[in-house]
Amino acid sequence: MSPEHLSALIAEIEAETPLDFSAVAIDAQYARRLMASHFCEIDARLAACGLLLEDRLEMMAAIAAHALVENMLLQLVQLRAVAALHERARARGDAAQGSGGEQSAGRTPGTGVDASADAGFREWMRRHGIG
Asked: How far apart are CA 23 and CA 26, in angstroms?
């Protein structure tokens, strides 16, 4: 396993589900290379400690699963923050808009959000214990 090969595999995965790096000051290729190098370093350290390939694979899977859990938690925090902002905007819009304009267009007042999309998002959040 080399950082170059691992980086290429990550790029193949990202081709299916691209990540948005526009909000950060790091290049996607550099990020892949950094994480691939880190994983290869961990693998080398585990090998130096005498762990067999199967044991190293299990440890790497545990590290990857931990990273997935961490990512899920970060995403949930972000979703909750967005939902709270949405609620505040909606509350301000309801007070400012009254019964006109956007409601008749099927939009949540003050947000520009389609009411059916808003309801669907809220239901999804409730199902996952978020909202």
From this structure: 9
What's the one-letter identity of residue 58? E
Of the given ranges (35-39, 63-67, 87-91, 114-118), which has the lowest mean pLDDT?
Answer: 114-118
The residue written with tokens 């099927």 in the block is 106
17-50 pLDDT tens trace: 888 888 889 999 999 999 999 999 999 999 999 9
Q: What is the mean pLDDT of residues 93-109?
A: 53
Q: How far apart are CA 23 and CA 18, in angstroms?
A: 14
Query: Running DSSP on this structure, what letter comes out for residue 113?
Result: E
Phi then psi for residue 100, to 5 deg, are -105, -170
For residue 112, give every residue at least 6 positions away whose Cβ sits within 8 Å of its Cβ, in sequence order, or none: 102
Q: Decide: helix, strand or coil at residue 109.
A: coil
Nearest to 83 by CA among 129, 26, 49: 129
Count CB atoms within 10 A of the CB of residue 84.
11
Nearest-CA neighbor of 39 among 74, 75, 4, 12? 4
